[in-house]
Amino acid sequence: MTRISYAASLALSAAILASLTLPAAAATEKVLWNFQGAKLGSPVGRLLLRKSTGALFGTGSSADNGYGQVFRLTPSGGIWKIKTLVKFTGSNGANPEAGLISDSTGALYGTTHDGGAYGYGTVFKLSVSGGIWTETVLYNFTGSSDGANPYCDLVMDSSGALYGTTENGGSNGWGTVFELARSGGTWTETVLHSFNSFYGDGATPVAGLHRDAASGILYGTTSSSDQGGTVFALSQSGGVWLYEVIYDFTGGADGAGPNAGVIEGPKHNLYGTTYAGGAYGYGTVFELVSGFDWTEKVLYSFTGGSDGSNPLAALHLDTSGALYGTTYVGGTNGAGVVFKLTQSGGVWTESVLHDFDDPISDGDLPEAGVIADSAGNLYGTTYDGVDFGTVYEITP
Questions:
Q1: Regarding beta strands 218-222 and 122-129, do their DSSP bridges make them parallel or antiparallel, or are they unpaired?
Q2: In terms of DSSP bridges, do strands 155-156 and 162-166 run parallel, antiparallel, or are they unpaired?
Q3: pLDDT score recorded for residue 64
Q4: CA distance to 72, 85, 351, per residue, from 127 (Å)
């Protein structure tokens, strides 16, 4: 299942596309794991890297056969070994569509889009003791005012409270931002905002949130609105959460349909992607510059050619200020790309680090973004390809 909520179509001539495509940068891709068998699902969310062991944790969603899983990939003597930590059965959740986070104890937290006690998704925790992983459902969404169908990965504050979004539900049926707080072993959900879809408020959030550690402000996106989606902020004052749309996409050259969340740069500027819109209609990478009013800058517009098309995932920012991401489709083979954006003299230039081939070779349809280790190696997943998706590594 993919989180495409805004579609775009724009015909460009082959001559124009050829003139705008960019050469691939020197990088090496290696498939670490091919998923086989539909029951455990195709990998969907961004991977989580445990630096102490080099292990990768991820989720697999299966809308057709089975309910998905949480898996761990561990390197051993140059060989990667996989272990399923939990198989979702429906009652304990179904179809996790996002990545995982970890707390200081090594416990994992995530969401499932479906399943649970009421069929509208869950928030879950995985704890390990003596090498045995145990799942606990922290919250079952009812599909009513509390929200329904979370697509998001979670964020955690210093108190251990969890924050996320639901695609549907809420007071108006257009999704929510929620908080889960623990007191005495009991987790309680509070809806911080219910989207209404009108007057630029936004609707259908399908991405997780970014939390500013200093201020506690939550930033997020909605994939649709009365125009082309929004970027919003939630700040707390006197125990009351205040909601503000800081940018409302027009659906044109500025981008449309942000299906991923935003990340924060060193100057508190925000960076993200839109699935559609831009100069050519195939999506953008954008920056929101903070100030009295937020100002949007399109850093790159995808042409739909060899440079990639329709990014679904959030970005990764390295210490040099370069941005890394994926496009869901496009590239030379139409199977998506991994790209890098670098800035020189205020001009951003895209390089394609890897051009996915086809389902028989190295996978296709990279729905999730990439993460990096301390050496700068990138890790990600493809939703399809070979059998039921891949986990890959790119060495720049």
A1: unpaired
A2: antiparallel
A3: 63
A4: 13, 10, 40
pLDDT at position 6, please? 41
Residue 17 token pair: 């596309």
Distance CA 148, CA 144 (A): 7
Nearest partner of 63 among 363, 393, 384, 396, judged by Cα: 384
Structure tokens at 294: 């937020």
The answer to whether the CB of 29 falls within 8 A of the CB of 394 is yes
Q: Determine the Cα–Cα distance for residues 127 and 249; give it in Å rounded to an integer.
A: 40
3 state DSSP class of 39:
helix
Say whether pTM exceeds 0.90: yes
Please tell me the predicted confidence (pLDDT) of residue 227: 79
CA 162, CA 180: separation in Å to the nearest integer? Answer: 5
Q: Residue 27: exposed, middle, or buried by beta-carbon count in 10 A (0-12, 13-18, 19+)?
A: middle
Low-confidence ranges of the chain (pLDDT < 50): 1-2, 5-21
Q: Which two tokens stand for residue 141?
A: 């969404």
* Token digits of residue 34: 């091919």
Distance CA 35, CA 57 (A): 14
CA contacts within 13 A on the Cβ side of 256: 20
Residue-level pLDDT at 3? 54
Written as six digits, the tokens of 373 are: 């280790």
CA distances from 161 to 71, 179, 216, 346 (A): 24, 7, 12, 39
Residues with Cβ < 8 Å from 264, sequence gap 6 or more? 210, 212, 219, 270, 271
10 Å CB burial of residue 4 (0-12, 13-18, 19+) is: middle
Size of the chain, expressed as the number of residues it contains: 396
For the stretch 355-361, contacts whose Cβ atoms lie closer than 8 Å and that sit 24 or more positions apart, written own/partner, are: 355/24, 355/306, 355/331, 356/331, 356/382, 356/385, 357/333, 358/333, 358/385, 359/335, 359/384, 359/385, 359/386, 360/385, 360/386, 361/385, 361/386
CA–CA gap between residue 326 and residue 275 (Å, rounded): 11
